[in-house]
């Protein structure tokens, strides 16, 4: 959970994600974003250019273009954010990492014939899941 949607925050997230994937021998080839100001910045462009990531933007006012992300947001809201009452925002935030682990490692997805997303990333070096 990040504090804002500013260019430095978005670029920092992409840099950390690229490093995380690179450590697992996964290369990011493309990233698809909406047309937010942070994704139009020079900082974002430089962060993409460094590791050779091609940046594509969705068509304005067409959330269907980013359908997988929109569907994930709905699932996130239904199964984590509003799934139960939380006593505080800190409690809600603390529940995110366990939910993400369950979603990526244990929850079957119909698009993957009932397998979790981690099943699509094979041969993770040094990680036996």
3D structure, described in words:
With 129 residues, this protein is mostly helical. Helices cover 43% and strands 6% of the residues. The protein has a two-stranded parallel ribbon with strand order 1-2. The chain is globular. The two termini are 24 Å apart. The relative contact order is 0.10.
Note the topology:
Blueprint: H1 7-22, E1 30-33, H2 42-49, E2 54-57, H3 67-81, H4 89-94, H5 96-105
Helix pairs in contact: 1-2
List keywords for this structure.
129 residues, mainly alpha, 2 strands, 43% helix
What distance lies between the first and last C-alpha atoms, to the nearest angstrom? 24 Å
Query: What is the helix fraction of residues, given as a range?
Result: 40-55%
Structural class: mainly alpha
Taken as a percent bin, the fraction of beta residues is 5-15%
The global form is globular
Number of helices: 5
Instruction: Summarize the helix and strand pattern as letters.
Output: HEHEHHH
Short précis:
By secondary structure, the chain is mainly α.
